[in-house]
Design goal:
Layout (H helix, E strand, L loop, with lengths): L38 H4 L8 H14 L3 H7 L5 H12 L2 E2 L17 H6 L2 E7 L2 E6 L3 H11 L2 H10 E3 L2 H27 L11 H20 L1 H30 L5 E2 L2 E2 L14 E7 L6 H9 L8 E8 L3 H10 L5 E6 L7 H9 L6 E4 L5 E2 L3 H11 L4 E10 L6 H23 L11 E4 H6 L10 H11 L3 E11 L5 H22 L3 H43 L9 H32 L11 H21 L24
Parallel strand pairs: 1-4, 3-4, 7-8, 7-10, 8-9, 12-14
Antiparallel strand pairs: 2-3, 5-6, 10-13, 11-14, 12-13
Helix pairs in contact: 2-3, 8-13, 9-10, 10-15, 10-19, 10-20, 15-20, 17-18, 18-19, 18-21, 19-21
């Protein structure tokens, strides 16, 4: 076990007391030796850390291909303030807490401001004899600074122009200096760069005109010929189910032949590459009024099997969420975690917060997690393996989502069946058929350059995940399913579930309206198969949810009156009977089969008994669909918050950082 030593009340006392001990497998950790400690940590020996700990940090740093001090800091074995204060004393330089200094904010308006920020440099107010800067050197820059201070002629010059600070203070100062520009980029970049793919303008005038004309025509026909109109509407409702049921049937056939796949290839071992070659990975975790789940979230993220020094975890808070920020402050997070505070602006949505934090990301790969998520510890390694084995156009891999409270009540069981059907059967089938994949809102992993190329997330779309999946497909990029799971919390109460499902369906309506502004261009971008799949999957799902209660009422009435068993008297009647029979038998059977395949793959076979209640659950989805339609008209960009709790989930006591 590693440990940090220090006198009570001395510098060693500043070490993160809340950080769990870091344990490593014997095969992964080199034995201490009498080798010379590198200069970046040698000055810690005796006063701030014991020699055995420092030597283990050196061995781990070689394996991770990072410098030794990054191992200590990222693993929470020494606090940033403790390390950089000791470093400044050792080098004879001044240490500064930037909150007590005047930063030269005008320097951030210069085009090189962002570059200086990425280099951990903050310009301070101009004083004699010149411009003074604060730096938080790491790795190669730190070693170079140490070598410079060894030269007597350089020490005085460095003292006059250089202050040391912590990376966390530097990042906070950079963010304050660039807040306005970052906020404008987060909320408006997509609308400015590709307005035709942004939901900011809502539904276009031409689309509104067409919808108004159709509604007027329908009302006129109903007024003129009520009986004929009812029959026509019944036929149209039946036909609206048919494409969705055909897609479900195709998904059943494809899912029955599909084994778990990873990025379009056979699943690779979790440790396909050693720590030496792993890239820096940024995790974006948007939080809003999630103080209750924050401690469990941090423990879950600390269980991730990835080099701590190569993790860049952004906990993203809204400025008004003071309770969440206070809890995060009390947790005293290690250096791999960073609190990112998003200033208030409209729209106040999760995608805008993600866009804001993405500008501060260090990783070449980016993953999104929600507050209640519990990803498998090896998920990042599997994602790295998927990208390495996949084609260049592979831009995103989506982990499979499920629930850790699936058996809590009837609603959570139905929700779990729906997710099992979607992530274990339907989405893998879409991948096999090479069709666009509407992403889930969490546990999707991106190549950062591809994500930024398509404009990242749409801040005005309340289902930014599904929209992003379509935009990636329009650019010629692929999304694939990842052979790894993330456990979430299913909504256990009807009111919470209804708000969440309303937001999802409202976002799908908005996504359909945005991408159908120019149908011919969408056809060219997605191809014929992709265009049809988009319409069936997005529009068909929403339309069938709206039509389902009416269709069910008609079928129930026909069963009561016996009309459904009567012989059709015309060819049109026979056609209608065939469509109804298909919807009732093949359609329902396909949906139930997808759920059965999903729970079998997920290992939840005991939930199969709840499949018989799926049609009743669909009526609840229809209620949410009509509520979503009302919200779509009244407040299309309003984000209804989903409340979470972790009362039914417990992590292992020992959290490990590797």
């Amino acid at each position: 076990m590693w440990r940090i030593e220090g006198r009570p009340g001395g510098p060693g006392a500043a070490v993160l007391s809340s950080a769990p001990p870091v344990e490593a497998k014997p095969s992964e950790l080199e034995s201490p030796s009498e080798e010379i400690l590198p200069a970046e940590i040698a000055f810690l020996e005796g006063r701030h850390a014991d020699r055995a700990t420092l030597l283990r940090a050196v061995a781990t740093g070689r394996r991770w291909r990072v410098s030794s001090e990054q191992v200590l800091l990222a693993s929470g074995l020494i606090a940033q303030t403790t390390y950089y204060r000791a470093l400044s004393a050792h080098l004879g330089l001044r240490f500064a807490r930037l909150s007590d200094r005047t930063v030269n904010w005008q320097a951030f308006a210069h085009p090189k401001g962002a570059a200086m920020a990425r280099a951990n440099i903050v310009p301070l107010a101009r004083t004699a004899p010149g411009l003074r800067v604060a730096i938080a050197p790491e790795g190669r820059a730190l070693r170079r600074l140490i070598s410079l201070t060894a030269r007597p002629d350089a020490t005085r010059l460095l003292r006059n122009h250089l202050l040391l600070a912590t990376p966390r203070d530097i990042a906070s100062a950079v963010k304050r200096g660039l807040d306005r520009e970052m906020l404008e980029h987060a909320g408006g970049h997509l609308a400015r760069s590709t307005p035709e793919l942004s939901a900011a303008a809502g539904i276009g005038l031409r689309q509104k005109t067409v919808l108004a004309a159709l509604v007027t025509l329908c009302l006129s026909v109903i007024a003129a010929a009520p009986a004929l109109s009812v029959n026509a509407i019944t036929v149209l409702l039946a036909l609206s189910f048919a494409p969705v049921n055909i897609l479900r049937t195709a998904a059943v056939l494809a899912a029955s032949r599909v084994r778990h796949r990873q990025g379009g290839t056979v699943a690779l071992p979790a440790r396909h590459a050693d720590d030496h070659g792993l890239p820096v990975y940024t995790l974006l975790v948007p939080l809003f009024k999630e103080a209750a789940v924050l401690p469990q979230l941090v423990k879950a993220l600390q269980r991730i099997d990835y080099p701590a020094a190569k993790l860049d975890i952004k906990l993203i808070f809204e400025a008004e969420d003071r309770e969440g920020l206070a809890v995060a402050q009390a947790l005293r997070l290690p250096a791999s975690f960073q609190r990112v505070v998003v200033p208030f602006s409209r729209p106040q949505t999760k995608p805008k917060a993600l866009n804001f934090a993405l500008q501060l990301a260090r990783g070449s790969l980016v993953a999104v997690y929600d507050a209640e998520d519990r990803p498998e510890p090896n998920q990042l390694r599997r994602a790295v393996a998927a990208f390495a084995a996949g084609p260049p156009e592979l831009a995103c891999v989506q982990a499979r989502l499920g629930f850790y409270n699936a058996r809590r009540n009837w609603l959570t069981r139905q929700f779990a069946l729906e997710y099992a059907a979607l992530f274990e059967a339907q989405l893998p089938a879409l991948e096999t058929l090479r069709l666009p994949i509407p992403l889930g809102g969490t546990s999707n992993h991106f190549r950062r350059d591809r994500l930024e190329e398509v404009g990242a997330w749409d801040p005005h779309n309340v289902t930014e995940d599904a929209d992003l999946g379509i935009r990636l497909a329009r650019k010629g990029y692929r999304c694939a399913m990842l052979d790894s799971h993330t456990a979430e919390e299913a909504c256990a109460g009807l009111a919470v579930w209804l708000r969440q499902r309303t937001r999802w369906l409202k976002g799908w309506m908005l996504t359909y309206g945005v991408h159908m502004r120019a149908p011919r261009q969408l056809w060219r971008d997605l191809g014929a198969r992709g265009f049809v799949a988009f319409n069936v999957l997005i529009a068909g799902t929403v339309l069938s949810a709206l039509a389902h209660p009416i269709f069910a009422a008609v079928i129930f009435y026909q069963l009561l009156t016996g009309i459904i068993f009567a012989d059709p008297v015309s060819a049109a009647g026979w056609g209608f009977a065939v469509v109804n029979t298909f919807n009732l038998t093949v359609g329902y059977a396909a949906a139930i089969l997808l759920g059965w395949i999903g729970v079998r793959k997920r290992g939840l076979s005991d939930l199969s008994r709840a499949l018989k209640w799926m049609p009743v659950y669909w009526l609840l989805i229809s209620l949410a669909a009509y509520r979503a339609l009302w919200h779509f008209v009244r407040q299309p960009f309003f984000w209804e918050k989903t409340e979470h709790s972790v009362s039914r989930f417990r992590l292992p006591r020992r959290a490990r950082l590797r």
